[in-house]
Amino acid sequence: MDFASHITLAALGQQILVGLSRTTILFIVSSGLSLILGVLRIPNVSHGSLYMIGAFATYSVATLIGGTTGFWLGLILAPLLVALLSLVVERGLFCHLYEREHLMLLLFTFSLTLVFGDLVKLVWGSDFRSLSLPPTIQGSFTLLGLPFPRYNLFLLVLGPLVAWGLWFLTNRTKIGKIARAAAVDREMVAAMGINVSWIFAAVFCIGCFLAGLGGALVAPTQNITQGMGHAIIMEGFLIVIIGGLGNIWGALLGALIFGLTDAVGILVWPQFAIVFPYLAVVVVLLFRPRGLLRSTW
């Protein structure tokens, strides 16, 4: 059977654009995961649960306020709520465990996943939610002779802005430079009189903010359900691994590979499209076991 016989250049171009918009979500979530992993040396398993909370919080804000204003406020306030929640957890519990071994930290973040899951069930219940787009970005426009959603265009614009913002934060700001130094030698940074604990808190909150932002952005594109963070955390870790542990640009490259192979797989062989991104991960790790870019570990 010729699986490519039905593919046209226009359809392929449109599907690549759709894949790039999905790449934006994957990159935003995985970049937060990579940032925490690179600086704090913590594989934050609860990252997917914070993504889920971001989606539910966006729904609540948008529904409570209503209209276009409610939607845009949801995209802003929900990630901030997730960041605030992460700050409470980090200052109340996490900061006392940084000197413990990695296995204990991993188990702690896993326990947070269970706690956040019950918190979502307590606040929002077990039913799924759905969020409609505001009229300003509903519908689609014609691109390459085929319809392309306006919201996907918004994601395509937002993705590079977030990438540039992270680069500016880590390379051009004082907190970013201190965080990079602490990732290499936290004892030396502490010896210079810098409160490393609060630097870690700031990095953890920024990473969790990105998880919440990813959940907020995905809320209008799919049903908001219990357990929606399970798939994204698995994909996020795979992206971080193939990109290079703790490398933000590696996370972008990994998200591109994951998003584009998924989109092209849907076009080429829809029944087995889910396999394509994982095959790409296997191929990358066969030739580059340490990831595509330099790991910070």
Attribute tags:
297 residues; mainly alpha; ABC transporter involved in vitamin B12 uptake, BtuC; two-stranded antiparallel ribbon; 11 helices; 3% strand
Structure, described:
- The protein has 297 residues and is mainly alpha-helical.
- The chain has helices at residues 9-40, 47-65, 67-92, 102-124, 150-172, 174-184, 186-191, 196-218, 228-243, 248-268, 275-287; strands at residues 140-143, 146-149.
- The protein has a single domain (9-131, 164-287), classed as Orthogonal Bundle (ABC transporter involved in vitamin B12 uptake, BtuC), CATH 1.10.3470.
- The protein contains eleven helices and two strands.
- Strands 1-2 form a two-stranded antiparallel sheet.
Question: What is the string of SSEs from the N terminus onward?
Answer: HHHHEEHHHHHHH
Please tell me the total number of domains: 1
Oligomerization status of the protein chains = single chain
Compute the number of helices. 11
Unreliable stretches covering 5 or more consecutive residues: none
Average residue-wise pLDDT: 89
- State the total count of DSSP E strands: 2
CATH topology name: ABC transporter involved in vitamin B12 uptake, BtuC
How far the N terminus sits from the C terminus, by CA atoms, comes to 45 Å
Radius of gyration from the CA trace?
19 Å
The largest sheet, given as strand count, sense and whether it forms a barrel, is:
2 strands, antiparallel
Give me the CATH architecture, please: Orthogonal Bundle
